[in-house]
Amino acid sequence: MERTFIMVKPNGVARGLVGEVVGRFERRGLALRAMKLMRVSRELAESHYAEHREKPFFTSLVDFITSGPVVAMVWEGPQAIKVARATMGSTDPVDAAPGTVRGDLALEMEQNVVHGSDGTQSAAREIGLFFGAEELV
After folding, report:
1. How do residues 14-29 score in pLDDT, each as one tens digit?
2. Tens digit of pLDDT for each residue in 70-91?
3. The domain containing residue 122 runs over which residues?
């Protein structure tokens, strides 16, 4: 079994899409192992997006993710990362296929409703950042 980190971004929470997003991952067969509604601190946001620190869009990423509550989640299942990424669709919603979260629910790349880990190392790092030593189900 593999675990991955998924986050409904502030615009997804504000639009009332948390249930829709959760339902899509449940229907794919992934198991929800942890979930919390939270505000992301600037410090956490900067750690989360550390690999983008030198890029011109870093500040806008941090500003956006700290602009409202998010829902942080850990999902588990066979090839959970690959399954979750396929369910979310392309990072740029314009390129995301219909039927994916981003293809159906988003229009802009930065405000693309969800974030998901892109590999096993990022999943472990992101789960650690958002859930620390909390016991996961």
Report:
1. 999 999 999 999 999 9
2. 999 999 999 999 999 999 999 9
3. 2-131
| Residue 84, domain member (yes or no) | yes
Which CATH number does the domain housing residue 51 bear?
Answer: 3.30.70.141
Are the C-beta atoms of residues 70 and 17 closer than 8 Å to each other? no
Residue 136 lies in a domain: no
d(CA 46, CA 53): 8
Q: How many domains does the structure of the chain reveal?
A: 1
Q: Are 40 and 64 in contact (CB under 8 A)?
A: no
User: Which residue numbers are catalytic?
Assistant: 115
Cβ atoms of 8 and 37 within 8 Å: the answer is no
Of 31, 26, 27, 34, nearest in space to 7 by CA: 34
